[in-house]
Amino acid sequence: MSKIVVVGSIAMDLVTITEQVPETGETVFGKAFSMVPGGKGANQAVAIGRLAPKQVSMIGAVGQDAFGKSILDNFTAQGVLVDEVGTVPETTGVAQITLFENDNRIIVIPGANKTVLTDTWMSEWDIIKASQLVVLQNEIPHESNMAIAKYCQENGIKVLYNPGPARETDFQMLPFVDFITPNEHESRMLLPHLSLEEALAKYPNKLIVTLGAEGVIFHNGQSIERVPAIKAEVVDTTGAGDTFNGAFGFAITSGLSVKEAIKFATIASHLSVQKFGAQGGMPTLEAIKEHEQYEKTWYFE
Ligand SMILES: Nc1ncnc2c1ncn2[C@@H]1O[C@H](COP(=O)(O)OP(=O)(O)OP(=O)(O)O)[C@@H](O)[C@H]1O
Ligand SMILES: [K+]
């Protein structure tokens, strides 16, 4: 049984780099292509697997195709347990990403991720019940997230909810989760009637807003606190948020306080932006321990 369960999306990212984008009916030559495992759920599970091999289980689904097989192999290589990843008669989730002129165009095909529905669950609930923390995002149906969060609350299991991409229903999750980690845009969508300061004060040690290169802001129960990002030679910020969430969840289950867990996750995401791809730069625990901002008082089993 694993300490942490991630329920969420799994995808293959098909990345095309081009200097021209075709008009309707036109064909152009692109520059380069790469295929990398992605999906917010999968990325967060891999972030945890790197830090704590075999202490994280993924619940989700892939299709009966070559992408599905390759994704399962990747999970196993990264320390993520896959007993609860179903293979369903759909295509594996795919994100078709076109990068041009420092901008991107993305088409997401949810495919198998649409079938992550709790109505059919059996052993999945047992895995969750035996864990300490469940990590959720917004790339599986909202109804599934709601059912899981309610179950966790009834059974005393902590929930870390990363509400991305933002949905109008996100605020419904608030009473049932322990930590919610939107970025600035997602936090505005979550609580549109409150300023950032008001929102943070309303949910102390629970609402943790990530601000990209500006770091993280939260309320510690007494006042608003900011944990600055650590300056980095940035190669690719893709996956910074997923690394942050995975590392934060791992640190919380290891007994760190909210502020310490934020600091730990800040080191992890700082390391992650220095490598290409969402999963490419996710650090091991050893790599974090070598960082100058690692605190000697932090203890991991
Ligand atoms: N350029 C950067 N340099 C150093 N740290 C960074 C940088 N960008 C992000 N981070 C770290 O990663 C954390 C999460 O980043 P961010 O707020 O961009 O999340 P996000 O919007 O969910 O990211 P994404 O969707 O791109 O993965 C930040 O709080 C910060 O600690
Ligand atoms: K990266």
TrEMBL record:
What CDD domains does the database record attribute to this sequence? ribokinase
Range of residues in the leader sequence? none
Record localization: Cytoplasm
SUPFAM superfamilies referenced in this protein's UniProt entry, alphabetically: Ribokinase-like
Q: Which residues form the Carbohydrate kinase PfkB domain?
A: 1-284
> Where along this sequence does the record place binding of ATP?
183, 210-215, 241-242
Cofactor, free-text remark: Requires a divalent cation, most likely magnesium in vivo, as an electrophilic catalyst to aid phosphoryl group transfer. It is the chelate of the metal and the nucleotide that is the actual substrate.
What are the required cofactors? Mg(2+)
Query: What enzyme category does the UniProt record give?
Result: transferase
Q: Which residues bind K(+)?
A: 236, 238, 272, 275, 277
Which residues does substrate bind? 11-13, 39-43, 139, 242
One MF term in GO for this entry?
ribokinase activity
State the UniProt keywords alphabetically: ATP-binding, Carbohydrate metabolism, Cytoplasm, Kinase, Magnesium, Metal-binding, Nucleotide-binding, Potassium, Transferase
Q: What EC number(s) would the UniProt record show? A: 2.7.1.15
Please name the NCBIfam families in this protein's record.
D_ribokin_bact
Task: Describe its partners and assembly state.
Answer: Homodimer.
Q: What family is it from? A: Belongs to the carbohydrate kinase PfkB family. Ribokinase subfamily.
Record-given protein name: Ribokinase
